[in-house]
Design brief:
CATH superfamily: Aldolase class I
Number of domains: 1
Order of helices and strands: EEEHEHEHEHHEEEHEHEHEHH
Strand content: 25-35%
Number of strands: 12
CATH class: Alpha Beta
Structural class: alpha/beta
Strand order of the largest sheet: 1-4-5-6-7-10-11-12
CATH topology: TIM Barrel
Largest sheet: 8 strands, parallel, barrel
Distance between the termini: 29 Å
Shape: globular
Length: about 260
């Protein structure tokens, strides 16, 4: 059985890591370069770097910050935010990224997924998805939203599960599923959303949005059937440590890559 991955997420705005609630009320969490080095030494399986306001502000990602962050890592780095062309992807890969995450641009130009997969391989192309539950629906439904970095984003009319399936057909090799309803609330991942997408696609699904404790991570990989868990606040502010999370999951029978890093219980 493949091991489940623990992935810290750096949401970067103006060169600093920030964390908010439902994409609002951001507070400073630190320097991305320093935090990358810390998480690498802690035993994180991968690291995600999102320039969260690049698309909303209509600008490109901060290449120098990505490059300096990548220099600190011996683990895979996924980079997203403001990437609109295959050339943008190429620049990120040359700057040290191992995977490219696209969200807004993928919705606007779905063929960008295919182009990226053909140029660099599906293993490099990650679909980032911000999904919001549709109120009043007789059956559970979620809508994909874009330009979410500076607030609630823009509606797309796309059904989240259907969009995930289409993205995989186009060549996406992984999907990060972020619940806009749960993001930053620390009340747990949207397990129903995760399970629906995990069962609909054949590629790894990464849970994002809502981690408040280690039990939430366990629920995401067991009940939500996710292949990995993304978390920010609980790691950034040292409430929990990577080694602690892995130990918790391992004790409950979840296969993980254990780390020798120590932590204060």
């Amino acid at each position: 059985m493949l091991t489940k991955r623990i992935i810290p997420c750096l949401d970067v705005d103006a060169g600093r890591v920030v964390k908010g609630v439902k994409f609002l009320e951001h507070r400073d969490a630190g320097d991305p370069v320093e935090m990358a080095a810390f998480y690498d030494s802690e035993g994180a399986d991968e690291l995600v770097f999102y320039d969260i306001t690049a698309s909303a502000q209509g600008r490109g990602i901060m290449l120098d910050v990505v490059s300096r962050t990548a220099e600190q890592l011996f683990i895979p780095l996924t980079v997203g935010g403001g990437l609109r062309t295959v050339e943008d992807m190429n620049r990120m890969l040359k700057a040290g990224a191992d995977k490219i995450s696209i969200n807004t641009a993928a919705v606007q130009i779905p063929e960008l997924i295919r182009q990226g997969a053909e140029a660099f391989g599906s293993q490099c192309i990650v679909l980032g998805m911000d999904a919001q539950r549709v109120a009043g629906s007789s059956t559970p439904r979620w809508e994909v939203r874009t330009h979410t970095g500076s607030g609630g984003g823009r509606p797309t009319g796309l059904d989240a599960v259907e969009w995930a399936m289409r993205a995989v057909e186009l060549g996406a090799g992984e999907i990060v599923v972020n619940s806009m309803d749960a993001d930053g609330t620390r009340e747990g991942y949207d397990l129903e959303l995760l399970r629906s997408i995990s069962r609909a696609v054949s590629v790894p699904v990464v849970a994002s949005g809502g981690a408040g404790n280690l039990e939430h991570m366990y629920q995401a990989v067991v009940q939500g059937e996710a292949d990995a868990v993304l978390a920010a606040s609980i790691f950034h502010f040292r409430e929990y440590f990577i080694a602690q999370a892995k130990e918790y999951l391992a004790q409950r029978g979840v296969p993980v890559r254990l780390t020798t890093a120590s932590y204060a219980k």
